[in-house]
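Pasting as-is:
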Amino acid sequence: MAYYEPTGGVSAASALPPEKRWRTVLLMVNGIRRKVRFEESTITGLFRPFLQRLTRLQQQSGRRLIVFLAAPPAVGKSTLTLFLEKLSLATPGLTPLQALGLDGFHYHNEYLNTHSCERDGQIIPLYQIKGAPETYDVSHFRTKMRQLREVRELRWPVYDRMQHDVVEDVQRIHRPIILIEGNWLLLRDAPWADARQYADYTVFIKAHPNDLKMRLVNRKMQGGKTLAEAEDFYRRSDSQNVLRVLRSSVPANETWTMGHDGDFHTEADLQKRQDVSLDFDAPMATLLQNYGDANSKPPVWQEGYREGMNAARKKILRQLFHSGAISSKELCQDFNLTKDEIEEILRPDKA
């Protein structure tokens, strides 16, 4: 999914990214019917090719294929994997995929309310950090993973967000490709590292922590907490989980990135954006070769040339930012811009 394809030179018109076209679908997520959206070019350029790769891998193996999709909290793992499941069933030639969640392997509330763990020299009740890797029954998860290899049909536990607790053996597993989503599937620490042996293929999704905070706070408020309670839980638990996933997950077979508009990109897509950082000096040097040596006074149009190129560059980057294709942090990192330069680029043009 490219934003533009430079051919020799890049004009402002050709470099501007197209307006995004979103497809709205209805999905049953955690027992609740939800309206979600995915970008059309992402569906055709990322999701379908991904499912085609999984189809080939499953056909080559001749057995059930197990795929891990790991990402921080609030990336939208559940809705994404459910949509991929729906897409696999609706697209001819694809092997049917079944989406499963890791959250059904939380310890039951009864256990969380009566056990603690040590963190930074302090004893912390598990219920206070629910969602952290210490609050999952990894032994139970590994048992189910072995069964996925050995048993054609079995039942999977789910996390009931109305009861806020685990319900055992609810979801029937029967398809040849199993896509499991969760925060900790690629965590390098024991005992999670032992579970990776069961994955045939892995995907990791990155996101900026600031893009996830509001999603996580809103999620807690929808569950009945006040704003103050939700923000306190984010500070104590969710924020630490986000950073731990991002910093302590091992490399996956492929990596995607969620932008602040909720769209997904591959690493290659992000690399293509860097082409917007135009090298003004190269074309300028070529033009100046026809106007004497480098020590002579530059022609009068040189200043206008640079002003025009800078204006085009600002317009391109502004369009990328406001369309949700790139964040201010990515502007700094990908285009080597200072904060002042970003503010200048994002400042509206004078009429």
